[in-house]
């Protein structure tokens, strides 16, 4: 079986869908979903509504996913699975790299897409590495903050003793004054468990810095193309792009997207794109 409908992040006509329409040309319909929030539910609901249609999703890879999977780049999309009632459900894939811009700034795409206007390979790779050097500390901080996010729990709205599987203030006074005190107590306890501690974030930042700086596995061998934000790398190139008369970072991205249209079988330029096409063609869930 082959995927009939692939959901992706972003809006209609935005970067993700424009890239995928070329990489997956002739294979399936691409439909945008907007924000990543609610993505899982969208895929599952669509499958229920259209059981005859093979539906999957492709989403960006978040910073906090890298802690769960710290393997070096494998040049293949990552599996996206969720657990529901102890059953594993395959929803599709994550990009292996942080986001779609990470692919657009890859030298293997930039040089052919720009054609005669492209800088030399050595010059562009130097610009790209210089960009990574500018932002590795910022990247470490972003990852540390992402890993320190607290997944908020519901604010408790009852208290007391549990009997018959019911929590209730048995034998307690529940007048206005006591309720005010309980509200204060619950709020204080909730705040203490839902706000990350500064020292924990700083410790995580220190750890991430060793991975993101030169010599670290997230930096060396151009691994920053996987682990750093492509948007950040692009922005840090601003001065170098202007010196090459390639415009702003936004202009440069548009030049790449436009140039890709002139390349035949653009998926052949990156191994991960080739593998994605295979996964789309051979999909089963």
Gist of the model:
The chain has 285 residues and is α/β, with parallel strands linked by helices.
Notes on the protein architecture:
This protein is an alpha/beta fold. It has two domains: 5-149 and 199-281, no CATH class; 161-195. It contains 13 helices and seven strands. The chain has helices at residues 15-23, 39-49, 65-68, 101-104, 107-114, 121-147, 176-194, 198-212, 224-227, 230-236, 238-243, 249-260, 271-281; strands at residues 5-8, 29-32, 55-59, 78-84, 87-94, 161-163, 166-168. It has a five-stranded mixed sheet, with helices on both faces. The protein has a two-stranded antiparallel ribbon with strand order 6-7. Helix 5 packs across helix 12 (249-260) and helix 6 crosses helix 10 (230-236). The mean pLDDT is 91. This is DUF4435 domain-containing protein.
Instruction: Tell me the domain tally.
Output: 2
Largest sheet: 5 strands, mixed
| Largest sheet: spatial strand order | 2-1-3-5-4
Low-confidence stretches: none
Query: Termini distance?
Result: 10 Å
The helix count comes to: 13
> Beta-strand level of the residues, as a percent range?
5-15%
Which structural class fits the helix and strand makeup?
A: alpha/beta
SSE string: EHEHEHEEHHHEEHHHHHHH
Question: Helical proportion?
Answer: 40-55%
Task: Please give the radius of gyration in angstroms.
Answer: 24 Å
Q: What is the overall shape?
A: globular
- What is the overall pLDDT average? 91
Number of strands: 7
Spell out the key features of this protein.
about 280 residues, alpha/beta, 2 domains
């Amino acid at each position: 079986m082959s995927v009939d409908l692939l959901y992706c992040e972003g809006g209609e006509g935005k970067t993700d869908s424009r890239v995928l329409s070329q990489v997956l040309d002739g294979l399936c319909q691409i439909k945008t979903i907007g924000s990543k929030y609610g993505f899982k539910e969208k895929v599952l609901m669509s499958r229920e509504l259209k059981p005859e249609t093979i539906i999957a999703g492709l989403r960006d890879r978040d910073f906090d996913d890298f802690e769960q999977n710290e393997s070096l780049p494998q040049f293949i999309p990552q599996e996206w699975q969720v657990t529901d009632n102890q059953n594993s459900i395959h929803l599709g894939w994550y990009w292996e790299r942080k986001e779609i811009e990470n692919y657009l700034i890859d030298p293997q795409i930039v040089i052919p897409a720009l054609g005669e206007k492209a800088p030399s390979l050595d010059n562009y790779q130097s610009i790209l590495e210089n960009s990574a050097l500018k932002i590795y500390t910022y990247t470490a901080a972003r990852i540390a903050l992402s890993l320190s996010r607290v997944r908020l729990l519901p604010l408790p709205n009852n208290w007391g003793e549990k009997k018959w599987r019911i929590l209730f203030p048995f034998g307690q006074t529940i007048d206005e004054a006591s309720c005010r005190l309980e509200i204060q107590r619950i709020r204080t306890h909730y705040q203490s468990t839902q706000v990350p501690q500064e020292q924990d974030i700083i410790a995580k930042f220190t750890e991430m810095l060793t991975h993101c700086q030169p010599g670290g596995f997230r930096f060396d061998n151009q691994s920053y193309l996987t682990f750093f934000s492509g948007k950040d790398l692009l922005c840090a190139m601003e001065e170098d792009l202007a010196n090459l008369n390639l415009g702003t970072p936004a202009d440069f991205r548009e030049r790449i997207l436009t140039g890709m249209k002139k390349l035949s079988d653009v998926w052949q330029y990156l191994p991960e794109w080739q593998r994605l096409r295979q996964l789309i063609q051979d999909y089963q869930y």
